[in-house]
Amino acid sequence: MVRHGLKMEYLMDQDKDCIFCKIANPPAGGEEERKLEYSDDEIVAFPSIAPKAKVHLLIVPKRHITSIDELTDEDALIVGKMIIVAKKLAQEKGISGGYKLIFNAGKYQEIKHLHLHLLGGSDLGSIA
């Protein structure tokens, strides 16, 4: 079953209090939907509200996965797809000279929903 282009399996696997779940699964035509840089059935990407580089996008699965620490073998495809989406967005944004992809976990992860940071377009030397 599909609702607004979203598979029902993802609707059932959401955390109603998670800000990234709300952003990743916006109502059709809603304000959050207009802020998305990328969206498909499984993944969205949007700008960071606290950018650390000229380009700082967050690539987020629509299904709630708390952290890298929660990943299972079944999640390999979604994590791989997140990286491929990041590569495509870097190309679309015209990032040249390199970029960084960062997953945070544990005490370094502010939002408890798996997300990949795409950073580029400026000197990233101080960003680990």
TrEMBL record:
The keyword ATP-binding does not apply. Pfam families: DcpS_C. It comes from the Bacteria. Residues 19-128 form the HIT domain. InterPro entries: Histidine_triad_HIT, HIT-like, HIT-like_sf. Keywords: Hydrolase. The keyword Methyltransferase does not apply. A motif (Histidine triad motif) lies at residues 113-117. One of its GO terms (molecular function) is hydrolase activity. The active site is at H115. This is Diadenosine tetraphosphate (Ap4A) hydrolase and other HIT family hydrolase.
